[in-house]
Design brief:
Oligomer: single chain
CATH topology of the largest domain: OB fold (Dihydrolipoamide Acetyltransferase, E2P)
Number of domains: 2
Number of helices: 6
Structural class: alpha+beta
CATH architecture of the largest domain: Beta Barrel
Largest sheet: 8 strands, mixed
Number of strands: 15
Order of helices and strands: HEEEEHEEHEHEHEEEEHEEE
Radius of gyration: 22 Å
Shape: globular
Amino acid sequence: MARLKRKLHALLFLLPLISVLSAPVHGVSGQQSTTSCQIALLKTARVERVKDNGDLQLEGGELVRLIGIMPVRLWKNATNPTSQKLNTLARELVALLRRELQGKQITLRQNGRKRDRYDRLLAHVFGPHGQWMQGLLLQKGLARSFSYADNHHCMKEMLSLENTAREAKRGLWAYRLFQPKIAGEVKQLMRKRYRFTLVEGRISQVADRRKWLFLNFGENWRDDFTIAIKKKYKRKIERSGFDLQKLMGRKVRVRGWIERWNGPLIKVTHKEQIELLGEE
């Protein structure tokens, strides 16, 4: 009987420990920051310093950019109330990264493009307790999802996290500046020229030309908002099972840089730039 009691006491002692070890890893404020996305291990390293723009400087001087997101940045010479509030968010982002990562051992994972044009390492960053930093920043509304044609791993999960933060108006999503623009508001879109922008609207026409596929959002393709896709990217997108010809009449959200090509235009290089929106 005494032996049985000792075993029961030991089991009761271990149960809380087992529950802690089997629970998902959470980041600050109790927010879940794990990911089910499979990403190849690159290396572990120690963060020497988190820079003011959110880049990580590793011991030895190598710089790391958190791939897949566009963090809110500090506005220089901020004078109006909105830019000052956004600077508060930018400082919150840097403070979070410093608290979670600075002086600590982290894990870097990577799929796709390895470095950017500034020779920064492009990686998914996991903190000392397994926190997925990209997910945490998106959850808190401190960053937007952003991808390259040759590095768009985990975008489905990141877009979902971004959408949740936007619906809750967390962080930068509380400001009209970052909210998706309407495809039919052409003049407003032209004022966003050369800026990374989200645009929503219904595709009215799919025009397949010799070198380009055009997804038009209005009757007059010379003036209205358009998505343009080069044929080489069209083939890659459609090989992934995304049928661009069936987008006519669908409501979508597209992200990218606004250019002027007759009217306002965004060039698409990979399917993750286009989200299908549910019908209202």
